[in-house]
């Protein structure tokens, strides 16, 4: 048989349960805009009814209900969507960094523009064309000096900008390593706290949300695998354990650790992967191409047709035999043999020389002597190989523009031999280098403009592809996040509806308690008074 106060207890349970539901609804509303928050719900169930089967069972029919109670407060979360989100997020992290690096590379090359390398090169060769019209004009020579200086400065600046970008990526890799270490420590701490709280029978919903948020952020930095067991989240990178329960398995996630993971293929996604790809592939590739461009202009093999009558500097060697006149006598000089003193080409010679420097050293300056021209460009650091970073206009020529070699003809013989200063053979040959096919150190052939255009074209295509991949990743991340929010996100409309529903239930339970209280008052105070 039910207790006299049975219904009071039933009403009390209802009040407690609806209060918990209202409190949880308020918590959801308060965190509607909190990053990483998952909506929570109160799990209600009918409390255990009275009159279980037994020897003392009452004779009243049926089981009398005892009201409602809540068994738990659960967060609404779907782990499958979390795994999907993290998988797409690490790809987004990688492509976004690569796209950003390529965008910065495009800004460094700045093509097409009025200040890019292409424009500077065109002005350089144009200045030689202008000089060929009047080789003795000091103004034209100064313009050649200025454009040559501008060309080497542009290459130096571009190389420095690429080096700065490389340095920034190196620093960012180290900083991201520190960020990863902090995230791993936080996850381990949250694992410990969650295990302690849930060991008491409660759900650590808010702590779980914090742990998932940190894990989501970590997934953007690097590709991770997350497995949950009784100790919490176990996080790994390509089989390498990072977090095991309450312990961080890696003592120091530094640049060396990340680079080793990248080299082994374990690190295959995330922002750090994008940084290392940018540094090791993108920057290395374009730095190499820019260095190759600088070295090819200065030392690359070029075919040159030297006209008959040109006076060849002593000890010069050609790749083909040439016919020369020496003091009126005709001689054939075999390929690879040094040209003797006083040799003048008897026929046009189609030869190959080592770039602009090799060509410039075949000409003569305004000093009137048969001393050949100096190397036009040199390595500022004294290195054997010209690069975009060390290419420098010869300071001797820069200080004295008369040392620019423009002539290839002389007059007189022996001690009376002098250079024809007004001759423009060398100036014309150098001016035509902008349409001459160079052969670089790897054997690739093309004009300087084609080498540069190929590099810029490749940069544009790679940047376009990186942007496309980034846009795709953004779409996929957004799509999964939308699905995840549809499950875990807080809907204010839904919460307001719930609030009204729970409020009415609470009011009804209160009214029920009041009603039964009046019944008890009548029973206790208004019955059994006969004879008083």
Describe this structure in words.
The protein has 12 helices and 17 strands. With 532 residues, the protein is α+β, with helices and mostly antiparallel strands. A 4-stranded antiparallel β-sheet has the order 3-4-5-6, covered by helices on one side. It has a 3-stranded antiparallel β-sheet with strand order 9-8-10, with no helix packed on it. Strands 1-2 form a two-stranded antiparallel ribbon.
The gist of it:
The chain is α+β, with helices and mostly antiparallel strands and 532 residues long. It has helices at residues 6-30, 79-109, 117-133, 138-198, 205-221, 255-264, 271-299, 355-360, 395-399, 425-431, 448-488, 492-525; strands at 40-46, 68-75, 225-229, 232-237, 240-244, 247-248, 301-306, 322-326, 329-333, 344-345, 349-354, 377-379, 391-393, 410-411, 418-419, 437-439, 445-447.
Fold blueprint:
Blueprint lengths: L5 H25 L9 E7 L21 E8 L3 H31 L7 H17 L4 H61 L6 H17 L3 E5 L2 E6 L2 E5 L2 E2 L6 H10 L6 H29 L1 E6 L15 E5 L2 E5 L10 E2 L3 E6 H6 L16 E3 L11 E3 L1 H5 L10 E2 L6 E2 L5 H7 L5 E3 L5 E3 H41 L3 H34 L7
Antiparallel strand pairs: 1-2, 3-4, 4-5, 5-6, 7-11, 8-9, 8-10, 12-13, 14-15, 16-17
């Amino acid at each position: 048989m039910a207790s006299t106060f049975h219904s009071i207890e039933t009403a009390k349970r209802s009040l407690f349960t609806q209060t918990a539901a209202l409190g949880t609804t308020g918590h959801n509303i308060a965190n509607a805009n909190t990053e990483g928050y998952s909506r929570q719900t109160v799990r209600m169930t009918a409390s255990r009814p009275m009159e279980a089967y037994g020897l003392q069972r009452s004779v009243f029919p049926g089981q009398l209900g005892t009201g409602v109670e809540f068994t738990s407060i659960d967060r609404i979360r779907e782990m499958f969507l979390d795994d999907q989100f993290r998988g797409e997020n690490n790809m987004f992290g990688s492509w976004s960094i690569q796209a950003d690096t390529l965008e910065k590379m495009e800004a460094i090359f700045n093509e097409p523009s009025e200040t890019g390398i292409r424009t500077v090169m065109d002005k350089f060769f144009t200045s030689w064309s202008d000089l060929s019209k009047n080789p003795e004009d000091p103004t034209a020579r100064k313009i050649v000096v200025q454009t040559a200086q501008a060309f080497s400065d542009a290459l130096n600046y571009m190389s420095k900008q690429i080096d700065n970008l490389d340095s920034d990526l190196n620093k960012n890799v180290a900083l991201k390593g520190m960020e990863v270490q902090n995230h791993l420590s936080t996850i381990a701490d949250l694992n410990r706290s969650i295990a302690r709280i849930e060991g008491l029978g409660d759900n650590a919903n808010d702590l779980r949300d914090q742990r998932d948020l940190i894990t989501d952020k970590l997934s953007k930095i690097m590709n991770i695998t997350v497995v949950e067991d009784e100790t919490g989240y176990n996080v790994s990178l390509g089989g390498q354990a990072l977090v095991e329960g309450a312990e961080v398995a890696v003592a120091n996630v530094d640049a060396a650790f990340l680079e080793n993971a990248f080299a082994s293929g374990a690190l295959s996604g995330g922002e750090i992967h994008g940084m290392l790809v940018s540094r090791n592939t993108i920057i290395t590739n374009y730095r190499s191409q820019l260095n190759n461009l600088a070295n090819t202009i200065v030392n690359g093999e070029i075919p040159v047709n030297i006209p008959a009558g040109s006076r060849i500097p002593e000890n010069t060697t050609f790749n083909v035999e040439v016919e020369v006149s020496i003091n009126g006598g005709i001689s054939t000089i075999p390929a690879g043999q040094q040209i003797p003193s006083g040799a003048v080409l008897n026929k046009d010679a189609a030869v190959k020389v080592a770039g602009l420097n090799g060509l410039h050293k075949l000409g003569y300056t305004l000093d009137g002597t048969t001393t050949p021209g100096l190397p036009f460009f040199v390595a500022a650091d004294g290195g054997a190989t010209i690069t975009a970073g060390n290419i420098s206009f010869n300071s001797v020529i820069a200080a004295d523009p008369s040392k620019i070699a423009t002539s290839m003809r002389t007059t007189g013989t022996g001690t009376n031999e002098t250079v024809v200063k007004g001759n423009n053979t060398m100036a014309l040959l150098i001016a035509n280098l902008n349409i001459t096919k160079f052969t670089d150190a790897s054997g690739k052939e093309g004009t300087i403009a084609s080498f540069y255009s190929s590099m810029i074209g490749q940069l544009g295509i790679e940047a376009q592809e990186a942007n496309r991949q980034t846009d795709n990743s953004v779409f996929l991340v957004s799509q999964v996040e939308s699905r995840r929010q549809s499950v875990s996100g807080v809907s204010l409309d839904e919460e307001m509806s719930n609030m009204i529903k729970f409020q009415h239930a609470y009011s009804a339970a209160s009214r029920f308690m009041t009603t039964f209280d009046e019944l008890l008052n009548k029973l206790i105070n208004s019955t059994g008074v006969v004879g008083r």
